[in-house]
Amino acid sequence: MDWIWVPSLACPSRYLVFLLIVSGRSLLFPNSPLVSADPSAPTTLHFNSEGIFKILQIADMHYANGEKTPCRDLVAKELRRCSDQNTTLFIQRLLSSEKPDLVVFTGDNIDFDSKNATKSMDEAFQPVIAAKIPWAAILGNHDHESSIPREDVMKYLTQMDYSLSQILNPSMGSLLGQDESQMPVQVNGVGNYYLQVFGPSGSESENTSLLNLYFLDTGEYSKVPSVGGYDWIRANQLLWYQLLAAKLRGSAPEASTPTPALAYIHIPIPEYESVLKDPSKVLGEKHEAVLSPSINSGFFTALLQAGDVKATFAGHDHTNDYCGDLLGIHLCYGGGTGYHAYGKVGWSRRARVVQASLKNKKGVAKATPDILTWKKLDDARMSKIDLQTLYDASAKRGIFGAKGGPMMSPILLILLTLVITTCSSCLFNSLYAKCRRKVGVDEYSRVTEDIPLENTYPIDSDNSDDD
């Protein structure tokens, strides 16, 4: 690979304090240049005139101090001339070759050893801002470990040019159509939000969302003393997603199926390990353990029940880049992009591309997009590898959205759910009656006291702090 130096475009001021006034809110950031929104930046996303919408995922830049930052896991001759600037150059090459409509940064965007977090963010996101491409970001478990708190990191990202990132989530009350003051439940984390991709400008679907994008904050580390490892998607985040998915589906009642959606996270959920049980449904490489939370909080189950998300995209594990189909939902890694992050000697840094198309292979327009993905490598040829179909809108789908298998009408599915619920209730009542007769009410009460209130399932994993 050729190593090319590019100049730093960040503001050199390190000790000035600026008052940021954006959307009527004042945010105070130390050691920061002034961030102001570009009025020409798009605020809505649309498929282009060819019916294409392309997303570039950048995972784990771990940007720190520019040209003074050392790289990791390269051959010796490359290490001597490598820095954060090589991450910048790779992203510039990606933007030039792929010309994405949206760039998504999936966390660990800056690293713990950054001496000035806001300056690091200015430099890290400079390529996409200079290219005037809309972008969105979530945080990983390292973004807040530098010089400013986690919430302030996310606030800063939301105010940068061309950023569509969000930090303020609607309350549960607003999603339920109620007075927010009556149900001001806050969603855990910072940066749980969604974006909609509308039809091509000037088309009949110009004001109709044809692709929804969810962004969730997977947190940092467990705050439960008895549970080690990483944090997990919390119950109120699950409820937020479920209510939002139902609301979005309700906005298109004429559709027989939900509008296709994608979900972006940083820390992979435990099912990223489960999908490996059937290698025939997995494409890509695994070079390290799946460092998911030790608690399975049920996010994958929520996705299955809602039926809209066709794929999830994670970072965190830099040398995993596989994408596998589990019950009709693809679980995908982006692969590590940053040179200051750990990697694998001889294994190129990479990024994942997702393309949604409103035309079939014959060029005929469709109302629901097909979704493809591939990866681009930072090698001499910018190699494109592992082309994969994530969603074929014309494919016959089974009960849970998996390809093939018997189709089930919504009415039949509701009836089946009622039957299962009724049978489960009857079985429980029968067992309850037998238990009362056998051990007595008092003993039965003592037995049930030990049943956990939440469905959490420990998963063995080799958690590491080096992600």
Automatic annotation (TrEMBL):
The family database entries (InterPro entries) matched by this protein are listed as: Calcineurin-like_PHP, Metallo-depent_PP-like
Q: Which PANTHER family match?
A: PHOSPHATASE DCR2-RELATED, PHOSPHATASE DCR2-RELATED-RELATED
Q: Which UniProt keywords apply?
A: Membrane, Transmembrane, Transmembrane helix
**Stored Pfam families:** Metallophos
What is the organism of origin for this protein?
A: Physcomitrium patens (Spreading-leaved earth moss)
Q: What lineage does UniProt assign to this protein's organism?
A: Eukaryota, Viridiplantae, Streptophyta, Embryophyta, Bryophyta
A GO molecular function term, named singly, is: hydrolase activity, acting on ester bonds
Task: List residues of the Calcineurin-like phosphoesterase domain.
Answer: 53-319
| Descriptive protein name | Calcineurin-like phosphoesterase domain-containing protein
Domain of life from the UniProt record: Eukaryota
Decide whether keyword ATP-binding is in the record.
Answer: no
**Any transmembrane segments, and where?**
407-428
- The gene from which this protein is expressed is LOC112283770
- Asked if the record carries the keyword Magnesium, the reply is no
